[in-house]
Task: inverse folding
């Protein structure tokens, strides 16, 4: 296992050296291109993170709305059931069973 890792790392090192030696740009140009790409990637990640945060906030808000609607529905159903129970169990006044 260690031998394979050593060969892998040697290959990575040789590839990096070969890439620098055969690069069509100067070292400064290569560093500037890498810096620009890093900034571009950072901006893209920041933008997508913000979009994801906004979408999550929208979902949370919608979830709260649905929860409040359902809470109101349950409350209304409970009140309707309570009133129906009271009407069914309360004796009517002024009427006679005879």
Result:
């Amino acid at each position: 296992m260690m031998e394979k890792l050593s060969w892998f790392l040697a290959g990575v090192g040789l590839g990096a050296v070969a890439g620098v030696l055969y690069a069509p740009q100067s070292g400064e140009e290569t560093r500037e291109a890498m810096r620009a790409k890093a900034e571009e990637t950072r901006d893209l990640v920041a933008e997508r993170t913000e979009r994801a945060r906004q979408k999550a906030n929208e979902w949370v808000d919608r979830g709260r709305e649905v929860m409040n609607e359902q809470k109101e529905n349950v409350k209304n159903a409970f009140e309707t059931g309570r009133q129906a129970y009271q009407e069914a169990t309360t004796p009517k006044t002024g009427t006679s069973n005879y």
Q: What stands out?
A: Residues 26-86 form one domain. The helical segments are 2-21, 27-89. The radius of gyration is 36 Å.
